[in-house]
Amino acid sequence: MAKDYYVVLGLEKSASAEQIKKAYRKLALKYHPDKNPGDKQAEERFKEITEAYAVLSDPEKKQQYDQFGDSGFHQRFSQEDIFRNVDLGNIFREFGFGGRGGDDIFSQLFGGLGGRQGFNGHTRPRPVKGQDYLMRLTIPFRQAVLGGERRIDLDRDGHPEHLQVRIPAGVEPGQKMRIPGKGGASPSGGPAGDLLLEINVTADFRFRREASDLFTTVKIPFTGACLGTTVTVETLEDVKRIKVKPGTQNGSKIRLKGFGVPGRPGKQAGDLYAVIEIAVPGELSDKQHKLLEKLRDLEL
């Protein structure tokens, strides 16, 4: 039965890469097979924490795990996928573990997954994985910020397919989303390749984005800038009324905390900034013209 990898390592989902590494090293030192000879419980625990580290230390696998959850991740990734390209020997050397090499321990605990040596001492050939496909997906600005569902149509080796893909909130232009098993078929009976969705985001006429913050322009009259006023600001999902202080300058920013890009595990929500633009009328009535002339005489 699969277990939550964060729970296995005793971490919160907001844990940094350094915290993940530190937690694994501490537990691996405790449950390492060479320190617990013949202890099956320690061996199982070591397998759990090593599998958890193999996923959470890999940015792409971790992103998939966070996106799909434990059960969804294991529907897409086999144990062989999890340990593909994982060099336990290098990891153990980095952490200063003595005793047998990483490949020996890997062989004993995991049975030679990924083409390593199995229990019988013979090397199993690794089936060739199918080709990865790259597809560029253009999504609206608001969906990139808020997330949502997106249908994509693709051709896999001459067979049309329709997929419903979940776009995570806060996805950025140029980011690649990996859809396991939706690439090309393996020529040797191995796993299918993956589909990589490269995200392109359309511009929005009202908002622009910088990291997790959003910016929108709000026009106010000259009198409002001088005397103060109240204006309506459109957010991505609602409208808010904000106060503009007397003496506000053109280009000033008013922050709406938490109304930017929604928060994700380990990250706070961004903010929305209303950028003040003082509107200058193109035409004036006679009365307005005379009043402004009086203000000019008062050096305003």
Summarize the structure.
The protein has 300 residues and is an alpha+beta fold.
Characterization of the model:
The protein is of the alpha+beta class and 300 residues long. The chain folds into three domains: 5-115, DnaJ domain (Helix Hairpins, Orthogonal Bundle), CATH 1.10.287.110; 133-201, HSP40/DNAj peptide-binding domain (Sandwich), CATH 2.60.260; 207-297, Urease metallochaperone UreE, N-terminal domain (HSP40/DNAj peptide-binding domain, Sandwich), CATH 2.60.260. It has ten helices and eleven strands. It has helices at 5-8, 17-31, 40-56, 59-76, 79-83, 88-95, 102-110, 141-146, 222-227, 286-297; strands at 133-139, 148-156, 159-167, 176-179, 195-201, 207-210, 213-221, 229-234, 239-244, 253-256, 272-279. A four-stranded mixed beta sheet has the order 6-7-11-10. Strands 1-5-4 form a three-stranded mixed beta sheet. A hairpin with a 2-residue loop joins strand 6 and strand 7 (213-221). The termini are far apart.
Keywords:
300 residues; alpha+beta; HSP40/DNAj peptide-binding domain; 3 domains; four-stranded mixed beta sheet; three-stranded mixed beta sheet
Q: Sum up the overall morphology in one term.
A: elongated
- The level 1 CATH classification of the largest domain is Mainly Alpha
Using only C-alpha atoms, the radius of gyration works out to: 28 Å
**Named CATH topology of the largest domain:** Helix Hairpins
Mean pLDDT over all positions:
83
Q: How much of the residues is beta strand, in percent?
A: 15-25%
How is the biggest beta sheet arranged?
4 strands, mixed
Helical fraction = 25-40%
Which spans have pLDDT < 50 for at least 5 consecutive residues? 114-125
Total beta-strand segments: 11
Written as H for each helix and E for each strand, in order along the chain, the element string is HHHHHHHEHEEEEEEHEEEEH
Q: If classified by CATH, what would the architecture of the largest domain be?
A: Orthogonal Bundle
- What is the total number of structural domains? 3
Strand order of the largest sheet: 6-7-11-10
CATH superfamily of the largest domain: DnaJ domain
Number of helices: 10
